[in-house]
Amino acid sequence: MKKHISMMMAAMMAATVLAGCGASGGAAPTDAPTAAPTEAATTAAETEAETTAAETEATTEAAQAAGEETEILVAAAASLKNAYEEELIPMFQGKYPGVTVKGTYDSSGKLQTQIEEGLEADVFMSAATKQMTALDEEGMIASDTITNLLENKIVLIVPTGSDSKLAKFEDIENAESIALGDPASVPAGQYAEEALTNLGIWDKIQDKVSLGTNVTEVLNQVAAASADAGIVYATDAASMADKVEVVAEAPEGSLAKKVIYPVAVVKNTAHEEQAKNFVEFLKTDEAMKVFEAYGFTKGE
């Protein structure tokens, strides 16, 4: 009897152990599937995030490469405004649709001062080499980009229909009122002073002269007949051919050097690639044809 009871107790204990093992073995498969999907989902999310970031970076780089949302500022002599605004800037923007070009125009001397004082211009084009050389010597111009792009002429003008008796450049001393650019900052005025000094006329006309802050002011004074005569660039006279008449060019030998317009990229520009593209564009045959249509000739 005792033996039978012992066998029954042993059987019950074995059953209990087997039941425990069965329960334990069943729990393991329950936990495994739960952990696996969580890890997979995390990996997928990370991969997607990395892909999105890479795509965004690629899109940004492509946009930057295409010049999207880029604006450059060109500081140019007042005598260039018409050619720039009417034709050259639209032409350039057509070739580089992501780049907007803004122009600021004044006497080269004033623009030089503004750049020295912090004007964030990307390109500078002056009406004389003096201002470009000064900025270059101050380390404010990318020297390897300087190009003597254009040549202009200095001319004596009178209002259209004027009954003045002026027939040659030297006759300016016979005018009752004379408009000139201020030699202190206006290259056209500097050229006028040089030519008239070499011709022995400068000191004789001082009581008749009114000085303009840029060559456009001089042109407008003569066009409005508020001055009997003035000295401007040939290109300025051509832009108002219906309002002013050219009497003569500055005589040969009255100027030591030709009237050269240099252009260059401003050093430390934030848009170096776009600025260089603009300068290179100005050197193309199609741009030169525009300049020639406005009275300029190719520089040396």
Automatic annotation (TrEMBL):
* UniProtKB keywords: Metal-binding, Molybdenum, Signal
Give start-end of the signal peptide. 1-19
Classification via CDD domains: PBP2_YvgL_like (cd13537)
Skewed-composition ranges (Low complexity): 27-64
One family name in Pfam for this protein: SBP_bac_11
- An annotated GO BP: molybdate ion transport
User: InterPro entries of this UniProt entry?
Assistant: ModA, ModA/WtpA, YvgL-like_PBP2
Q: Which PROSITE patterns does the entry link to?
A: PROKAR_LIPOPROTEIN (PS51257)
Q: Where is this region: Disordered?
A: 24-64
Query: Into which family does the record put it?
Result: Belongs to the bacterial solute-binding protein ModA family.
Give the protein name, as stated in the record: Molybdate ABC transporter
Q: List the taxonomic lineage.
A: Bacteria, Bacillati, Bacillota, Clostridia, Lachnospirales
